[in-house]
Write the structure tokens for this entry.
Amino acid sequence: MSDCCSTNNKSSTNQQNLSCPTCHEKGKSVDTITLKSLLKPDAMKRLDSSHNYQFCRTADCPVVYFCKSVSFRQDEIVVLVFQKENLPSTPVCYCFGFDRKALVNDVNQNGKSSIQEKIKQYVKDKKCACEIRNPQGSCCLGNISQVVNQSKVL
Ligand SMILES: [Zn+2]
């Protein structure tokens, strides 16, 4: 398990990270299956599956996915994107349906996050499907920690 500390050598950088056409920040590679499961029908018609897509994490940028020739915005995605929409009803965990409000209430009531513990268990049991449910295409636990830590400060 100590191998996880050696990921500093950034082996993933040979997957070229393009810059977002709108905010010019570097994107994060996302599998096409994530777009296929989360794009609205009209956006699906514009999808060119021969391209590699990137996810834009910039909060105030309307672009969610992009490649060299096409981009897709928040209003073309079937769910609200955690990084883009700072609403109480914005999902944080897409697999098990916990939003910001649920997490904040949980921390306020219990002094810690019981939801976070539950999600960790669900993930351990391999019940999650982040690559097809979470717009970022990867596990939500980092975002959960972020919201939990913010709630504790309040
Ligand atoms: Zn952007």
In short: Residues 15-76 form a domain with the N-terminal domain of TfIIb fold (CATH 2.20.25.270). The beta strands are 28-30, 53-55, 63-66, 71-73, 91-93, 98-99. Residues 141-153 form the longest helix (13 residues). The pocket of zinc ion is lined by residues 20, 22-23, 25, 56, 58, 61, 63 (CB under 6 Å).
